[in-house]
Write a structure and sequence with these properties.
The protein is of the alpha/beta class. It is 32% helix and 22% strand.
């Protein structure tokens, strides 16, 4: 069975977590959830994350890059500011990128890509307020509905989740 992992934390952007979560389930993936807090949290709009009460939550210490085909990094600036401070998560993202497996990143999830030092010389979309941060980290900021650069698929805003996940699914098939 193909496996995906979503890494996030408290006050993630609800849409950006839930849409890829269910979209990957639809494609037959087993989706693991790794939350900074190690327990269920709330999205910025109040949705319980993970949305399925039976979903087991993984800790970063308990996950291996080799177990997954795709990594999803949802946004939510309040969540990402805290998540990016966890060195084990940043290391996981960096190692995942080295394997050239698909990384699907939306909005302020781009902060994690910056911290993992995987954006230099790559076309990356991120939330508009992060344009300077991405450029300063060496990325080529690109504001399109779905930006594909090798194994990384990004978008700046949840209004573009359809085209973004379409490209993610295309990359993992």
């Amino acid at each position: 069975m193909n496996k995906a992992i979503i890494i996030s934390g408290n006050l993630a952007q609800d849409h950006e977590f839930i849409y890829p979560y269910y979209r990957l389930l639809e494609e037959g993936f087993k989706v693991d959830v790794c939350l900074l807090e190690g327990k269920p949290v709330q999205g910025i709009l109040g949705t319980k994350i993970p949305p399925n009460k039976d979903q087991q939550i993984k800790k970063i210490e308990d996950v291996l890059v080799d177990d997954y085909k795709v990594l999803v990094l949802p946004g939510g600036v309040k969540a990402m500011e805290k998540v990016r401070q966890e060195k084990k998560i940043i290391s996981f993202i960096s190692e995942f990128n080295k394997t050239q497996k698909v990384i699907a990143c939306i909005c302020s999830g781009a902060q994690l890509l910056i911290s993992a030092q995987v954006v230099k010389g790559r076309k990356i979309a991120g939330y508009y307020s992060m344009k300077d941060d991405l450029i300063n980290a060496g990325a080529v900021y690109t504001d399109l509905p779905a930006v594909v650069d090798a194994n990384i698929v990004t978008t700046a805003h949840y209004k573009d989740m359809g085209p973004w996940m379409k490209e993610v699914i295309k990359k993992i098939k």
